Automatic annotation (TrEMBL):
The gene is rapZ. Residues 1-158 form the RapZ-like N-terminal domain. Keywords: ATP-binding, GTP-binding, Nucleotide-binding. InterPro entries: P-loop_NTPase (IPR027417), RapZ-like (IPR005337), RapZ-like_N (IPR053930), RapZ_C (IPR053931). It comes from the Bacteria. PANTHER family: RNASE ADAPTER PROTEIN RAPZ. It holds the Pfam family RapZ-like_N. GTP binds at residues 58-61. ATP binds at residues 8-15. Residues 164-281 form the RapZ C-terminal domain. This is RNase adapter RapZ.
């Protein structure tokens, strides 16, 4: 049985994530009262019709005590049912904009609790779930299509005995990805942006590839990052980590970080079956 708990803050895209899993053949359950979780799992765990199941656990059906949820997780371990917790989050200002655009009411907002206060309170209540999540997805810069693609390609097809490695480039001037497990700063490398003939290219273009690959500092940085990931990924796997997100950052997220991320993707695709690539700023 492949069991996925989808959680996260309201407005972060949980409904879209569940729809994507449903399109992939998952039996999806939304807004189930928390006390009924164990009864439900007892009823479906031995049925092939529910081999792939996704359950939403959020502020609507979660009392915040974590006692009942912990009992559910312990019961699953005793039944040797493997499960994963996927937590969706987003920047607070982005969530405010999404609620203002949709004109929907936040589950915790009231006459005495403003929208922003409700968003902050929700994050506090869901904090333990966030800290124990197998995969945290920051949807701040994602479109609905990008989120659904991630759920299809990285979550729905993930094999429980494999590690899913996401390598993403980003620009520090736009902010640091909050879903990073490992982060490397490559701003010390020669910057193609200051070469007039290279400025309008990206780290995917051969002109920039030739420029950066000719620099000894680039080779040294790439070797060090590759060696670090190779050394510690098996240890993350042994500790039960199914997903690892590696973020590579430069100033604008278009040249150096893109080149390094591309090289890492090429290298680790020969070692792991689930290696994904994302260029946040391209």
């Amino acid at each position: 049985m492949k069991l996925i708990f989808v959680s996260g803050r309201s407005g972060s895209g949980k409904s879209s994530a569940l729809h994507a899993l449903e399109d992939c053949g998952f039996y999806c359950i939304d807004n189930l009262p928390e006390p009924l979780l164990l009864n439900l799992l007892d009823a479906i765990s031995n049925s092939s019709a529910y081999e792939n199941t996704a359950i939403s656990v959020d502020i609507r059906n979660f009392d915040g005590s974590h006692e009942q949820l912990n009992k559910t997780f312990e019961a699953l371990k005793k039944k040797t049912i493997e499960y994963q917790v996927i937590f969706l989050d987003s920047d607070e200002d982005i969530i405010v904009k999404r609620y203002n655009a949709s004109r929907r009411k936040h589950p915790l907002s009231s006459d005495s609790c403003s929208l922003r206060e409700a968003i902050q309170l929700e994050r506090k209540i869901l904090g333990p779930l966030l800290n124990n999540a197998d995969l945290v997805v920051d949807t701040s810069t994602m479109s609905v299509h990008e989120l659904r693609s991630l759920m299809r390609n990285r979550v729905a097809t993930h094999k429980t005995n494999e590690v899913s490695l996401l390598i993403q480039s980003f620009g520090f001037k736009y902010g640091v990805p909050s879903d990073s497990d490992l982060m490397f700063d490559v701003r010390c490398l020669p910057n193609p942006y200051w070469e007039p003939t290279l400025r309008n290219f990206t780290g995917r273009d051969q002109e920039v590839v030739d420029f950066l690959s000719a620099q000894q500092t680039t080779k040294d940085m790439l070797d060090d990052i590759t060696r670090f990931i190779e050394t510690w990924t098996p240890h993350y796997q042994k500790s039960g980590r199914a997903y690892i997100t590696v973020s590579i950052g430069c100033t604008g997220g278009c040249h150096r970080s893109v080149y390094i991320a591309e090289q890492l993707k090429q290298h680790f695709s020969a070692k792991y079956s689930e290696v994904h690539l994302k260029h946040t700023q391209l």
